[in-house]
């Protein structure tokens, strides 16, 4: 396998990022996990996060293997969550995925380590995220790496049976 690296996504990566997320969405749906739909994440979201320099990709010379968005945007639903510190400065992880063909090979861990290192270097108090409650693999992934569940939120924009997400944080 070619050596992977993580870098900011560029506009020229947009079509490959769309394909990555489509492949991930289809693989999740085959497992009965309906966390992503046509509304989120979508092409406009990808283009916006690339333009804002928030989309990071894990790639080798020939393909994009994973992606994540890192910014400070905390959604309104998080206001009711019992975070450890309401006043801290947190990096927020969104839209985290690795291609289904490389899952279980440690690449997600490499991406999360990158995010944590970046957060520490930039003086953040920790990382926050939410994860779909029906994606047991994702929940275990974060918990195994020291992320603590702090609460849950419900997204009314999702079908009722797929709207609950667990909130996690890791403090430094």
Automatic annotation (TrEMBL):
Residues 4-172 form the N-acetyltransferase domain. CDD domains: NAT_SF. One of its GO terms (molecular function) is acyltransferase activity, transferring groups other than amino-acyl groups. It comes from the Bacteria. The keyword Transferase applies. The keyword Acetylation does not apply. Keywords: Acyltransferase, Transferase. This is GNAT family acetyltransferase. It comes from Neobacillus bataviensis LMG 21833.
């Amino acid at each position: 396998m070619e050596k992977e690296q993580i870098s900011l996504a560029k506009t020229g990566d947009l079509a490959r990022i769309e394909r990555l997320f489509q492949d991930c969405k289809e693989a999740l749906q085959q497992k009965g996990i309906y966390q992503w739909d046509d509304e989120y994440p979508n092409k406009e979201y990808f283009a916006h996060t690339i333009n804002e320099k928030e989309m990071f990709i894990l790639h080798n010379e020939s393909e994009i293997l994973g992606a994540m968005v890192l910014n400070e945007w905390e959604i309104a639903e998080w206001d009711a969550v019992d975070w450890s510190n309401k006043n801290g400065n947190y990096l927020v992880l969104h839209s985290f995925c690795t291609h289904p063909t490389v899952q279980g090979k440690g690449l997600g861990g490499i991406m999360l380590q990158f995010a944590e290192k970046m957060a520490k270097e930039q003086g953040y108090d920790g990382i926050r995220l939410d994860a779909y409650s029906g994606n047991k693999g994702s929940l275990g992934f974060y918990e195994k790496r020291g992320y603590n569940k702090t609460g849950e939120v419900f997204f009314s924009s999702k079908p009722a049976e797929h709207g609950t997400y667990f909130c996690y944080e890791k403090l430094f």
